[in-house]
Design a protein that fits this description.
single chain; about 240 residues; 8 helices
Length: about 240
């Protein structure tokens, strides 16, 4: 059966979270168009892949891909989209903090607005530590000042994007933090939808505030260069 929606979830050492999250995604998509759920295990060492494989009889739409070594969240998303068969890609984090019940809200925007290439969630009532919320707020303001993409929560992993728009993007490590600006660069409109945010129930975050800062400044300058060196969208006709 043709697939219309592909949900891509990168995971690293999330054995306790991956299974319950897969079930929630399946429940959220029960009334949607034909779909698949792709988990990309980014070199986990805690049995994440095995926990997911055990659910395949229960969730026929589930696919499990695995990196031979840890390559990072951006590569996990890229791997999943390359393997996806749907025209619409939904991404969310593998720690369970994004609520799969919000997925249909993002899909409705793409269905009704054909000029929109990406819909991004904006987390309300974030369940993170104060230091992480503060770092995120300051980082988003600085990034928006540089890139001027209108985004206030680029760290939200819950996004819906048209697959052709995604495949046209340049790849680099950490590029998933700049999807909004890069999609806009290609002439697509973007929309922002308030979404739920939940506390992490198991495992631990793979990021630190300092680690994010060190890579963000360098990447911001690179993305700004990409935006300035792009001629913008152009209509092409065969004569």
């Amino acid at each position: 059966m043709p697939v219309e929606i592909s949900v891509v979830v990168p995971v690293k050492d999330e054995a306790a979270n991956a299974g319950p999250l897969a079930r929630e995604i399946a429940a959220a998509l029960a009334g949607e168009a034909p779909h698949e759920i792709i988990f990309v295990d980014d070199g986990s060492g805690d049995g994440t892949a095995e926990a997911l494989l055990a659910l395949k009889p229960e969730i026929p739409a589930l696919r499990v891909l695995r990196h031979g070594r840890n390559l990072g969240q951006s590569r996990g998303i890229w791997t999943g989209v390359q393997a996806a068969r749907g025209n619409v890609i939904v991404t969310l984090d593998g720690d369970g903090q994004n609520d799969p019940a919000d997925i249909p809200k993002l899909l409705r925007v793409l269905e009704t607005e054909p000029t929109v290439g990406l819909v991004s969630g904006v987390r309300t009532k974030r369940k993170d530590t104060f230091s992480r919320r503060l770092a995120s707020r300051l980082g988003n303001r600085f990034r928006n000042w540089i890139l001027k993409d209108g985004a206030t929560d680029t760290g939200c992993g819950l996004k819906a994007i048209r697959r052709p728009a995604f495949l046209a993007l340049p790849y680099f490590d950490h590029f998933h933090r700049f999807l909004i600006a890069l999609v806009q660069r290609d002439g697509w409109q973007t929309r922002f939808v308030p979404v739920n945010h939940r506390p992490r129930l198991a495992g631990r975050s793979k990021y630190t505030n300092l680690g994010r800062l060190l890579v963000s400044v360098r990447d911001l300058l690179g993305v700004r260069w990409l935006l300035k060196r792009h001629g913008g969208k152009v209509d092409i006709r065969e004569l």
